[in-house]
Amino acid sequence: MSEQKRGMHGIWGGRWTFILAATGSAVGLGNLWKFPYITGENGGGAFVLVYLACILLAGIPVMLAEVLLGRKERMSPINTMAAMTDETGAPKFFRGIGWMGALSGFFILSFYSVIAGWALLYVGKIASGAFTGIDADGSGAAFGAMLADPVGLTIWHTVFMVLTGAVIARGVNKGLEATLNVLMPILFVLMLILFGYSLTTPGFMQGFHFLFDFDFSKLSTESIVVALGHSFFTLSLGMGAIMAYGAYMPSKQSLGKTILWVGLLDTLVALVAGMIIFAIVFSNGLEPSSGPGLMFISLPIAFGSMPGGVFFGTVFFILVSIAAWSSAISIAEPAVAWAVEKGGSRIVSTVAIFAVAWFIGLGSVLSFNDWAGYQAFVFISEMDLVSGVEEKVHTAFHLFANVNLLQAEYVNTAAVSYHIEGKTFFDSLDFLTSNIMLPLGGLLIAIFVGWFMSSDMIKQEMKMKNEAMFTIWRFVLRYISPVAIALIFINSSGLLKY
Ligand code: PFF
Ligand code: NA
C-alpha cells in the first residue's frame, strides 16, 4: 500500500535542486525580518553566539536526520514517520512527529503569510516613491498606519496565500524547480549590493559591535529559549518541511555536504541581513529593540536617501517577498503531500489546506489592530518605588485578558509602577511554534534517528564516505542535541516568567 505512495510527488530534476530548494525554504523572513529584530530585543552579541551554537549543535545534526528520514521513505512526513516507526519497532508515539509537524505548519503558514503581506505592500509603497527623503519618525508612522488597517493587511495576506498556493498546486517539479533556479542567485546579488551600501553608512561599526560583541549579563533564560527556537525556525526544522524536501532528493546524492551548504548559506544570509539592518538602525538613531517593525522601519529610511533607492528598495522588497514565498511553499508541502497520499487531488488538497491557514491568519491580522488588547499569558508585575529602590513586589498572571482594561485598573503612581506584558494572538502562535513545537519536534527526531535507527540502516541511506564525520554527527545527535534541547526546556519550564 505504501509502495504506491513512495516517490509519487516526483524527484528533484537537477543535482543542485535540493540545495536550491532547501536553501529557498531556509532563507526567508526568518533571516531578513525575524533574526534582526529578535537579536535587537535580546540584546545583541551574546544572543547571536548562543544562536550560532544552537545551529551547530542542534540545527545541523537534526537537519541531516530529517533529510535522511524523508529520503529513506519518500513520502510525506506523516507517512514517513508511520513507516519508520514500524520498520524500527520504535514506540508508536514517534508518529506524533509527523502530526505535530503538520499542525505547526498550519500555525506558521498562517502568520508567515501576514508578514509576507507586509513585504508585498512595501513593494508598491517604495516603488511609488512614498519613502523618498523620509526620516525615522516618518517611516515609523507609515509602518504604524499599515498595521492599523486590517482590511489592507487581509488583502495582502490573501494575495500571498494565493501566490503560494498556486505554486504548490502545480507540484514539485513544475511549480518550484524552474523558478528557484533563477530567483535564488538574484537574492544573493541584491543582498551583496545592500551590504556594500551598509558599509558606507556611519553606523556600520556600531551595528557590527552590537551583533558580535558578547555581554552575557544581558542573556536571560528566555533569550536562550528564543535562540534555540529560532535556530529551528530559520533552518525550517522540527516540522517536516526539510523532511518533505528530502523525500524528493535523488538517491545518489550524498547528504552530509549538502546539508552543511544549506546551513552555512542560511546563517550567512542572517548575519549579513543583521549587519545591513543594524548599520541603518544605528545610523538613524532607531532603537534596536523596536520589535517586528525593525526591518520595515529601518530599510525604507536607507532606500529613501541612497542613490537609486527607489529601484533598489523596490527590488529588495520583491526579493523579501520571494524569499518568503519560497519558504511558505515548504511550510505547506508536508500537509499537502499527506492529503495527496490520502487520495486527494493536488489542487483540492492545496485549496483545503490554504483555506484553513488563511482563516487562522486573520487572527494575526487583527493582533496588530482590533485585537491588540486581547492577550494571552499576561503578567502584571508591581514595583515598589517608595524606598527609592525599585523592588518587585509581586506578579500576577492571567491566561487571557484584555490588557486595555487592566491598564485602566492598574494606574502607575509615584509609589508603585505596574508593568503589564502579554502575548497577542500573533505573538502566541509565534511563541508556541518556534519556542515549543519546533524544538520538541527536533528533540524527538534526534532521539528517533539517534537511538532507534541502527548505524547500518543509517549508513545505507546516507552514503557518507567520511567515517569520522559520521561518528561525530551520530554522537552529537545521540547525546549533545537531545540533552541541550531538553536542558533548555527544563530551565524554561517556569516557561514564561518567574
Ligand atoms: N526557514 C524559514 C525562514 O527562516 O523564514 C521559515 C520556515 C520555513 C519555518 C519552513 C519552518 C518551515 F518548515
Ligand atoms: Na531561515
UniProtKB/TrEMBL annotation:
Record GO cellular component, one term: membrane
Subcellular location: Membrane
A Pfam family: SNF
Transmembrane segments: 12-33, 45-69, 97-121, 141-168, 180-204, 224-247, 259-281, 301-326, 347-368, 436-454, 475-496
SUPFAM superfamilies associated with the record: SNF-like (SSF161070)
Keyword Transport tagged: yes
NCBIfam families assigned to the protein according to its UniProt record, in alphabetical order: Na_transp
Name of this protein: Transporter
